[in-house]
Amino acid sequence: MAKEEYVVVWAPTKAGENFIKLLKFKGIKVSGITNSQMGKSRLEELGIEHCILADTSHPNTWNLPPFPVGRVYLFESSLTLCCRYIQMCRSWTRKPIFVITTSINPRLVYKGLGAKYVIYSHSGDVAFLADKSALLE
Q: What was the pLDDT predicted at 2?
């Protein structure tokens, strides 16, 4: 991962918030993505400086962020929103997109849209993904 790249995280769940805290603790540059002002405020409370406030209903507004995007981690809370974020982020990076879900059903949908990894986790604990070695290509 290039030093200037940011890891982008959609964290509508407690597991996602914990993952952001862990990445920040490890000194990894993190950007958050959300589609609401309330979500943006929550990301700012977590110490995220670069928040992407996305209009998920209008693809023509999905502009490239003003910083290089590396890996993307999406903590699913909604099938529809997760699909939109995959489509949005796929155009921003060639690095892997990870979807962390508690449902085994949408796996092929997410992969078909461009997610490289779909990780099923009942607890949402995916701290192993924050390991520096896991961030290397």
A: 52
If pLDDT is split at 50, 70 and 90, which confidence band does 48 have?
A: very high
What the chain holds in terms of domains, given with CATH numbers, is 6-135 (3.40.50.720)
Residue with tokens 């509508």: 12
Q: What SS3 class is residue 46?
A: coil
Per-residue 3-state assignment (H helix, E strand, C coil) for 77-95: CCHHHHHHHHHHHHCCCCC
Judge whether 126 and 15 are in contact, CB under 8 Å: yes
| pTM of structure | 0.90
| DSSP, res 72 | E
Residue 32 pairs with which residues in a beta bridge? 9, 51
Instruction: Return the sign of the alpha-carbon dihedral for residues 86, 97, 107, 104.
Output: negative
Angle (nearest 5°) at CA 4 between 90 and 135: 65
Two structure tokens written together for 64: 């490239």
**Mean pLDDT on 44-73:** 90
